[in-house]
Design goal:
Elements: E1 5-9, H1 13-24, E2 29-33, H2 36-44, E3 50-54, H3 65-77, E4 83-87, H4 92-100, E5 105-108, H5 113-150, H6 161-173, E6 180-183, H7 190-199, E7 208-212, H8 218-226, H9 242-245, E8 250-254, H10 261-273, E9 275-277, E10 284-286, E11 290-295, H11 299-304, H12 310-316, E12 319-322, H13 333-340, E13 346-347, H14 349-357, H15 363-377, E14 382-383, H16 385-388, H17 398-402, H18 407-416, H19 421-428, H20 432-442
Helix pairs in contact: 2-3, 5-6, 6-7, 10-12, 13-15, 18-19, 19-20
């Protein structure tokens, strides 16, 4: 807490002096105020990183009303500054209510020095981390807005730095006349990235043909891609394939790893020369098509197993765009979920926390289906946890609480709770002290170098 400024608002001079000595030894700058009015006036001048406030300011007062009024005034004027309440045991219930209203934490009088110092240090580190996270998010939002002004982003919804990087690269390579390989798990959004590449390409006015190779029988794939002539197989008719249909535009080949070896050889030839023959025909045809392919499988592993041609892989993989799973970009969960809501519907706070806790193995597709189902099941306009029909672990049951949260879960819980440790602990199914111990064990610290 070196270099941080802490304001102690307490009518008892002995309390102010004791906290001044205790926190100054930790490197903090401590200022004092004897009344709520003095405290609010000092806060109006800025530069305060944390407030420690009493709940009563007259010797005969015991109700805590003055402390409640001060807390609410501080929260209205300075919502980002953490507030620690000092309270007598008779006011613990009031303190708990104020924590729900946004107080960072509370300590009972007489306080334990070690616990108080640990609480203040953690809150200061957390505030610095939250400020840093907020600034990063603002930069991402600004970069996304700038991209949206310059390019057609096909209404893609995201808030994470990971997706910002993918989208930015997609717009950057869109005008290059080279094949693009998009990798990532099923349902993560590979198709919308392909659409962004096509929509911003020099051939965006041309056809955009999509083929799901994984959904077609292997015996029909070659005729689907390259066309056929009568007699090529039983019942075959003269028909153009997808390459001919996409001539002058873009062909999107989804699940490219499922293409047969024969189809791979023909695809390689088209990529190299632009030439191919329909099934059952000796007539060579020529097309000019930009190929965007996608896969959820490891093509390198398929190459090692002899299921995919290495020369085709390098021809397809001139540019690779990797779409991360939704579990690795949790910042996108709520924006995507809200985007899928029906008009007039909203999520309860508990439902939003459950959405963030779930791992989404089915990625964006699973999330969209979950929200659509919840909109149908919800009796009113507000969707609750029960309407989501998620696994028990996402709903915050005892089973979830029994598992210790990892570093990412804790950081996300703290960020969602805007620095309110008790609220983050409740979301994680922990006590405040258990959360503090877990933070200390994982070494969750501020990114502020001066505070170390």
């Amino acid at each position: 807490m070196h270099g941080r400024t802490i304001l102690v608002i307490d009518d008892n001079e002995a309390v102010r002096t004791a906290l001044d000595v205790l926190l100054s030894l930790e490197g903090a700058n401590v200022e004092g105020a004897a009344t709520p009015a003095e405290g609010l006036e000092r806060m109006s001048k800025g530069g305060i990183d944390l407030v420690v406030q009493d709940m009563n300011f007259r010797r005969e007062a015991t109700s805590g009303e003055e402390g409640i009024a001060l807390f609410r005034a501080l929260r209205r004027a300075h919502p980002d500054v953490p507030i620690v309440l000092l309270t007598a045991w008779t006011q613990l219930e009031t303190a708990v209510e104020l924590v729900r209203a946004g107080a960072a934490d509370y300590l009972a009088k007489p306080w334990d020095n070690h616990r108080l110092v640990t609480t203040v240090r953690n809150l200061l580190q957390l505030r610095a981390a939250l400020v840093d996270a907020r600034q990063r998010q603002q930069r991402i939002d600004a970069a996304r807005a700038e991209l949206a002004q310059r390019f057609d982003l096909r209404d893609i919804v995201y808030s994470s730095a990971a997706m910002q990087s993918v989208v930015q690269m997609a717009t950057q390579v869109a005008r290059a006349d080279v094949p693009v390989l998009i990798t990532g798990p099923n349902g993560a959004g590979k198709e919308v990235i392909a659409e962004i590449v096509q929509a911003n390409s020099s051939i965006k006015a041309g056809p955009f043909v999509k083929v799901d190779i994984g959904a077609l029988p292997s015996e029909l794939l070659e005729s689907e891609l390259f066309g056929s002539e009568p007699g090529a197989y039983t019942g075959a008719k003269a028909r153009a394939g997808r390459f001919e249909t996409a001539d002058g535009g873009t062909l999107f080949l989804d699940e490219i790893g499922n293409l047969s070896m024969g189809g791979q050889a023909k695809l390689l030839r088209v990529l190299q020369t632009g030439e191919f023959e329909r099934l059952g025909s000796s007539q060579t045809r020529r097309v000019k098509v930009r190929v965007i392919s996608a896969t959820n499988a490891s093509l390198q592993e398929a190459i090692r197993e002899g299921r995919f041609r290495e020369d085709l892989y390098y021809r397809l993989n001139v540019i690779e765009l990797q779409v991360p799973p939704l579990a690795d970009r949790r910042e996108d969960v709520l924006p995507l979920a809200r985007h899928s809501l029906e008009p007039g519907k909203s999520f309860s706070p508990d439902a939003e926390r459950a959405l963030l806790r779930h791992d989404w193995p089915g990625n964006v597709r699973e999330l969209a289906n979950c929200v659509r189902r919840a909109c149908l099941l919800a009796a009113g306009s507000v969707i609750g946890v029960q309407d989501l029909v998620l696994p028990a672990s996402a709903q915050g049951t005892a089973d979830a609480a029994a598992r210790e949260p990892d570093r990412e879960e804790i950081e996300w819980a703290l960020q969602r709770a805007e620095g309110v440790v008790a609220r983050a602990a409740r979301d994680l199914g922990l006590s405040r002290q258990s959360l503090y111990r877990r933070m200390a064990k994982l070494g969750i610290e501020s990114t502020d170098r001066e505070g170390r």
